[in-house]
Design brief:
Blueprint lengths: L1 H27 L78 E8 L2 E8 L12 E7 L2 E8 L6 E6 L4 E6 L12 E5 L70 E7 L5 E7 L8 E6 L5 E7 L6 E7 L5 E5 L4 E5 L13 E8 L2 E8 L8 E6 L5 E7 L6 E7 L5 E5 L4 E5 L9
Antiparallel strand pairs: 1-2, 1-12, 2-5, 3-4, 3-6, 6-7, 8-9, 9-12, 10-11, 10-13, 13-14, 15-16, 16-19, 17-18, 17-20, 20-21
Length: 437
């Protein structure tokens, strides 16, 4: 009885396994990626939950691939993320009027002597962030005019770099500004550091003389035996007070004298006409900055800023290639000087005459106007008729902007005026000439 009850159940299990074996090859064929290793060959299939399929898939799908087992869920490949480029439309402040500038950096060169070693400092005066150098520029080191070293500069805004050279002689450091910097300047400074001579001055030390405290002499009281008849009053004992030791006199140390700053300015012209002003401080440290301006021959301001220089140091101010005299004044003309690297020839304006012929009721007249500068010398003129006969001749001299009318009269035919040997001339005809019959 129990045997017939379990037989249908076993039959169902066998049918299920057969169906699974028939269906699983269909899932192993197709197009897709699975966990199996791809390659050409026969299918090697295990009837387990994880299957590795080897070979080219055949069946409803086409393609080489790695096929998932039927126990795993086939997933679609995720779409590749799209990269959206954004344009940075932010423009630096210095690029609004000068779009050719690569960045807002501005280099400044200064220096000082550390003994016999020349120490140069390159400073990026641009502000941090906007003034950072986006690309490097070059610097060059000259000894007595000969190139001895070079390198590159790339500084963040408000940062510095130091270059030291102990070769002696006249040492110049020159740096290049960033691409697009106004004036294409080359800030530079020159140092001449020789070995310092140390002069040792022996200051005599005053040895205080120790005063010897005198030993007080104690006079013993003389003991007098009184005579029996005379009463003798004993002399009082002399009280001796010792001499006090002298108080040591303390000499105060002298207060160091503070020197005021002492500035002087030197203008320098390079071979290409490039101008540089160097400000030297031969006095003490500047405790506060001074304002300076650099102007051209027309009082146009070429550079303006603040400077503060330590004692014994200098600072270079690049001006560039400017025609005519250039002047720098510091602290409202307390210190100033001028230099001229490119001489300009002033244009000389010449007189220029315009002649206009006029007819007024048949009367001929000429109006001569000087539209140029004043005539330094008079010019000769002639007025002639149609036959070449001289009607009027004289000299004319006019100021700039001045006019002069020359009345001729009623003259038939064309009348001509020429000034300065036909330099200026014109012809007018107010009355037609009657042809001879």
């Amino acid at each position: 009885m129990r045997y017939f009850q379990r037989k249908p159940f076993i039959t169902v299990i066998i049918i299920g396994l057969v169906t699974l074996l028939m269906v699983s090859p269909l899932y192993s064929q197709g197009n897709g990626k699975g966990k199996g290793k791809g390659g050409n060959g026969d299918q090697n299939q295990e009837q387990t939950q994880e299957q590795n399929n080897k070979g080219n898939g055949q069946g409803p799908g086409n393609g080489n691939g790695q096929n998932q087992s039927e126990a795993e869920t086939q997933t679609q490949p995720e779409a590749a993320p799209q990269i959206t480029s954004s344009t940075n439309d932010t423009q630096l402040g210095c690029q609004k009027n000068n779009p050719d500038r690569l960045d807002c950096s501005s280099l400044e060169v200064s220096g000082y002597c550390d003994g016999s070693t020349a120490v140069f400092i390159i400073r990026n005066t641009g502000e941090a962030g906007n003034g950072d150098m986006l690309a490097s520029t070059a610097y060059r080191l000259y000894q007595n005019g000969n190139l001895v070293d070079s390198g590159s500069v790339q500084l963040s805004g408000s940062s510095t770099m130091e270059i030291r050279y102990d070769g002696g002689g006249s040492i110049t450091l020159e740096a290049d500004q960033q691409v697009g910097h106004p004036g294409s300047s080359h800030p530079r400074t020159t140092l001449n550091c020789s070995a310092p001579v140390v002069v040792t001055t022996e200051v005599p030390t005053e040895t205080p003389t120790q005063e010897v405290t005198p030993t007080a002499e104690v006079t013993p009281t003389e003991e007098v035996t009184p005579e029996p008849t005379e009463e003798i009053t004993p002399e009082p004992t002399e009280e001796i007070t010792g001499t006090p030791e002298p108080t040591e006199e303390i000499t105060p140390e002298p207060t160091e004298e503070v020197l005021p700053p002492q500035l002087w300015v030197e203008g320098e012209c390079w071979e290409d006409g490039y101008m540089t002003f160097t400000v030297f401080n031969d006095g003490g440290d500047m405790t506060e900055p001074f304002y300076y301006e650099v102007t051209d021959m027309y009082s146009n301001v070429l550079a303006a800023d603040w400077l503060q220089i330590e004692g014994g140091q200098n600072m270079s101010i690049d001006v560039g290639m400017v025609s005519g005299p250039v002047t720098i004044n510091i602290n409202n003309w307390e210190y100033y000087t001028s230099a001229e690297c490119i001489t300009t020839t002033p244009e000389v304006e010449l007189p220029n005459l315009n002649i206009y012929g006029d007819c007024n009721g048949g009367m001929v007249s000429f109006i001569v106007t000087n539209t140029g500068s004043d005539m330094s010398n008079p010019l000769y003129y002639e007025i002639s008729d149609m036959n070449g006969g001289i009607l009027i001749q004289d000299w004319i001299q006019l100021y700039g902007g001045e006019s002069m009318m020359i009345e001729v009269g009623a003259i038939p035919g064309p009348v001509t005026i020429n000034v300065d040997g036909w330099t200026y001339y014109t012809t007018v005809e107010c009355i037609s000439a009657t042809p001879e019959v």
